[in-house]
Structure to design on (183 residues):
């Protein structure tokens, strides 16, 4: 029951869509989604299906990152993929992205923790917020000298999706914070 409401049939917002509160099954997301999609229009079901598919592909991408599985990351990408990296140049295509990942694997060992994935209602845009836990293995270009320093900083990725594939990832982290930690 919500404050000021006399009925448990109040409406909640979920993914930008209005859903009856009694559609939710405490502790069981899949049953809740089934109740919501079965009780609402096919438009709502389509949006939830697309949103859930997009959340799954974004999570799969970051799971592959944590596993050091470059091929797994690339499998999540569309053929017209673009990668905008923090403080760097845009990379067009899967090949350029795989080469970037191989270089990064030589210079850094990273694991993302506290990953939270977000997605809009139609599944075309998403984001992930996380903590980057890493070790600086090999000096990268003009950055400070690598001596095996550890670092931990918040980061995020903004994602565009189409037809079940990621079309763009824009990565963000605070470069000045990272430099201060490894200097």
């Amino acid at each position: 029951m919500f404050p000021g409401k006399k009925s448990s049939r109040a409406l909640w917002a979920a993914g930008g869509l209005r859903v009856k509160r009694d559609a939710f099954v405490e502790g069981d997301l899949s049953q809740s989604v089934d109740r919501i999609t079965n009780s609402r229009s096919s438009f709502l079901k389509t949006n939830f299906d697309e949103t859930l598919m997009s959340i799954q592909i974004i999570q799969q991408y970051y799971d592959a990152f944590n596993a050091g599985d470059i091929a797994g990351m690339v499998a999540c990408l569309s053929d017209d993929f673009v990668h905008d990296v923090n403080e760097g140049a845009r990379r067009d295509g899967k090949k350029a992205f795989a080469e970037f990942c191989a270089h990064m694997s030589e210079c850094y060992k990273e694991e993302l923790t506290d990953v939270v994935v977000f997605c809009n209602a139609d599944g075309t845009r998403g984001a992930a917020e996380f903590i980057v836990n890493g070790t600086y293995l090999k000096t990268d270009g003009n950055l400070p000298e690598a001596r095996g320093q550890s670092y931990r900083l918040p980061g995020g990725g903004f994602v565009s999706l189409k037809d079940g594939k990621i079309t763009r990832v824009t990565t963000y982290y605070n470069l000045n914070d990272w430099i201060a930690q490894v200097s």
